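To make the argument concrete, we let one protein speak, a sequence paired with a row of C-alpha cells, as a model reads it:
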Amino acid sequence: MRRRFRTLMAALCALPLALAAAPSAHAADPTSLTSGFYVDPDNSAKRWVAANPGDGRASAINNSIANTPMARWFGSWSGSIGSATSSFTGAADSRDKLPILVAYNVYNRDYCGGHSAGGASSPSAYASWISQFAGGIGNRPALVILEPDSLGDYGCMNQAQIAERQSMLSGAVSQFSRQAPNTWVYMDAGNPAWTDAATMAKRLHEAGLRQAHGFSLNISNYLTTGENTAYGNAVNSQLSARYGYTKPFVVDTSRNGNGSNGQWCNPSGRRIGPATQMGGGAEMLLWIKVPGESDGNCGVGPGSSAGQFLPEVAYKMIYGY
C-alpha cells in the first residue's frame, strides 16, 4: 500500500495569492499517494555516466545531475506511446514514487521557433497519440507537463492554426480527465520573458486550463525562480479578474541557478537550480529539462540537436561557468 506523507504539504502547496482556485478535474492528489519523486533510471545523464565511467566529469555529473528526480520527455521517438507511458509510470509506482512526464508531440510543434520542430502528423494523429499517452498512465499517480512551447508564441500562426492548437490542447486535458484520474496536468505557459501575463492568461483559458490542474513555467529556460513566481502570480491575477478562477503553477528550476543572461539557446555560464521539491513560492519546483541537454544547434552547443546530452555543458552547469 502506498504511504501517505508530508503532513505539511498543504501549507507548502498553497498559492501565494489569496484567491479561490478552480477545482481540478481530478479528485486525487498524486503527491499524497506516493513517497517522493521518481528518479528516472534511464535519463540521458545516467546513460552518459554509465557509458563513460572513466571520464573525469562523470562523478560530478552522476552526483549532481543524474540521480536527481526529473522529467522524462515523450514524443515520436517513444515508440508505442501507451506502452511507453505505462512502463514508465508502472516502474515509478512499483517504488511508490511520483513520476514526471512531458508530452511533447503536438501537431506543428515549435512552429514559430523551429529548433524543436516536428510533432504528430495531423491534429487527429495527435488526438490518438495523447489518448494513448493518458491511457498508458491509467490510475497510477503522475504529473504531466503538457506541450512545452505550445502557447508561448502565436506570432507566425494564423487564427485557424491557433484555434486548431487550442482544440488539441483542450482535447488532451479531457483525455487525462477521463483516463488518468490520479494525474495532475500542467499546461505550459512559457516564461516571463516571452508573453505578458494578460495574454498568457487568455491563451491558457482558451486552451482549456479550467479543466487542468495548473500551469508550468520556465521549461528549458533560465529565468530565476523569483521572476517566475511573480509572473505566475500575475497570470493568476489575470485569470481571477477575467475568468473567476486561479490555478497552481510549477517552475522548471533545472537550469536557473544563475538566472538568465538574456539568451535562451545554450547560453554559457548557467547553473543548475534547486532540485525537485515542494513550495518555493510555487506549488512545486521541478527539474523538467535535463541539465546538459542541448536546446539546439546554437550557443555553447554548436553542431548539436535539441535534446542531445552535452557532458561539458552539464559539467560546467554544476559549477556555474
Observations:
- The two ends are 45 Å apart (CA to CA).
- The beta strands are 72-74, 100-103, 142-146, 183-188, 214-217, 249-252, 277-278, 284-286.
